[in-house]
Design goal:
The chain has one domain: Roll (2,3-Dihydroxybiphenyl 1,2-Dioxygenase, domain 1). The protein is α+β, with helices and mostly antiparallel strands. Mean pLDDT is about 90; it is low at about 405-420. The two termini are about 20 Å apart. About 45% of the residues lie in helices and about 15% in strands. Strands 2-3-4-1-5 form a five-stranded mixed sheet. Strands 6-9 form a two-stranded antiparallel ribbon. The chain has a two-stranded antiparallel ribbon with strand order 7-8. The protein has helices at about 10-25, 30-50, 55-60, 70-85, 110-115, 135-145, 155-165, 170-185, 195-205, 205-210, 230-235, 295-310, 320-330, 335-340, 355, 370-375, 390-400, 420-425, 430-440, 445-465; strands spanning about 65-70, 90-95, 100-110, 120-125, 220-225, 260-265, 265-270, 275-280, 285-290, 345-350, 380-385. Bound molecules: 2-oxoadipic acid and nickel (II) ion. The site of nickel (II) ion (NI) has 7 residues, from strand 1.
């Protein structure tokens, strides 16, 4: 039994996610427009889709954000901050393979109940300063980062208090959320002079974005739409500077994984420490559509088809690219029954009315396998929603927001950054270990969570068919 002296972490996360959304609406008015646009599309679509995917309540509060931190110590602070809101590091994404000098995880809730109440996630990237080959510049960046403190003193006190007493009272939790919001707000005042900013920006725009400000400003908040094609069209119609194509799989009858698009970051006025004014682009808008989580087998097929589709993407216009993608993805089964039968996606099982009437029909020895129970109409299936991210899409989102400035594609960047794919590939497990060392804990493997959910739902449904009482 939970101690009601303390606020439930799910409740703290909900307060925090609402607070972030209000703050970001005030900071980036276009984000407010995006929320309105997505809400109206979701309302139209909800009736058709939510019968397949039952999560009415969470949709209106569902969003993810992203931050980028500069040091292992800063990353460790976020582990402590997010766990208070019931968010843990799930998934490891090495974006250096795609030419972006960061590696990342997503802090998110993991239990079914917590996801249903508010699935707020923060994609958190750690800058890899070791990839700056100019030693003097790297040292300078380190020194600048060492001087900043991204948490208020009161926030640190509250985190320590929470760790000591294993929870926060309602008053302390409200105080905590207010203090935590400060960490994510925008700073129009840089903590370096213009020349330093320019030198870091020259090395990579991301480095300037992470190093030159007082804190890791939230750079986007992404609402979830039920129809990203309709939302993308609306975005273009309302004049938003939208990304050329939607990241992820093509339009399908059965949505899988994650499809995302964004409007580009705008140049914002910055005052530098030496009084100069300049511009910096950081904050953008993104929307996403989520579909079924894929098994390792399904994911391998997805990755292979994406590579195949990407081989000649450059020459194609947006529409031609989507057509091409759809053609390539015709090799990916597109009914829930097939996706289940071929073990490409994760599912929840439910007893049908036929199943309800078959209580105790089987023993552990006679129980058929899942596919047979589905075929015989005793169990029905619904897809388990993908709660995580995609490294190729994430890199595409990063890059579309850097492109308007001096982003240099990986092949031309050899003089300042060592980012060739082969080097990055060889270091993958090593870099994950380093990331985990900085986090202060192991990263949870997403498919472990989905497999567990699928297994538990099968156990519960078949226990009934075997007459086992819980
Ligand atoms: C994070 C970009 C990744 C997504 O939705 O894939 C991301 C960033 O730009 O910091 O948010
Ligand atoms: Ni995002």
């Amino acid at each position: 039994v939970a101690d009601d002296k303390y606020m439930d972490p799910d409740h703290i996360r909900d307060l925090f996610s609402r607070g972030m959304s209000s703050m970001y609406q005030a900071e980036v008015p276009l984000y407010g427009d995006l929320l309105t646009l997505v809400a109206s599309i979701n309302e139209q679509k909800a009736k058709e889709q939510l019968t397949d995917i039952s999560e009415q309540a969470r949709l209106s509060v569902e969003r993810h954000g992203a931050i980028r931190v500069g040091t292992p110590e800063e990353l460790a602070l976020f582990t402590r901050l997010f766990v208070i809101m019931g968010m843990q590091a799930v998934g490891y994404y090495d974006l250096t393979t795609a030419g972006v000098p960061v590696h990342s995880t997503a802090f998110r809730p993991i239990s079914e109940a917590a996801l249903a109440s508010n699935p707020f996630r923060i994609f958190t990237s750690l800058l890899r300063l070791e990839l700056i080959s100019d030693v003097a510049l790297r040292e300078q960046a380190k020194q600048i980062l060492a001087k900043r403190d991204i948490f208020t003193e009161r926030l640190r006190e509250l985190i320590t208090l929470c760790e000591q007493q294993s929870g926060l009272t309602h008053a302390q939790a409200h105080d905590f959320v207010g203090e935590a919001l400060h960490t994510f707000r925008w700073h129009a005042l840089a903590n370096v002079d213009l020349a330093t900013y320019q030198a870091l920006h020259q090395a990579h725009p991301l480095i300037a974005d992470v190093v030159c400000f007082q804190g890791p400003h939230i750079n986007h908040l992404t609402p979830r739409t039920l129809d990203i094609d309709a939302a993308q069209q609306q975005m273009i119609k309302s004049g938003m500077d939208t990304k050329a194509h939607i990241e992820g799989p093509p339009t399908r009858h059965c949505p899988i994984l994650l499809r995302q698009t964004s409007f580009k970051a705008q140049a914002e006025t910055i005052r530098f420490a030496d009084g100069h004014e300049g511009v910096h682009s950081a904050r953008f808008g993104e929307i996403e559509q989520r579909g079924a989580a894929l098994t390792t087998k399904g994911r391998a097929l997805y990755d292979a088809l994406l590579v195949k589709a990407g081989e000649d993407i450059q020459e194609r216009s947006t529409d031609a690219y989507q057509d091409h993608l759809r053609a390539v993805f015709s090799a990916f089964p597109d009914t829930w029954q097939q996706l289940h039968a071929q073990q490409l996606a994760f599912f929840y099982y439910h007893l049908t009315s036929t199943g309800q009437a078959a209580q105790g029909r089987y023993t552990p020895d006679t129980l058929p396998d899942a596919q047979t129970l589905v075929n015989e109409g005793l169990l029905s299936i619904t897809p388990i929603i993908y709660e995580d991210f995609l490294p190729v899409s994430a890199a595409g989102i990063f890059q579309s927001n850097l492109a308007s400035h001096t982003f240099i594609p990986p092949s031309d960047r050899a003089n300042s950054l060592v980012l060739d794919t082969e080097t990055a590939m060889r270091c993958i497990s090593q870099s994950q270990l380093e990331f985990e060392r900085a986090l202060g804990q192991k990263i949870i493997e997403p498919n472990y969570l989905y497999a567990q959910q699928m297994h538990q739902s099968f156990q519960a449904a078949t226990a009934y068919l075997m007459g086992i009482k819980h």
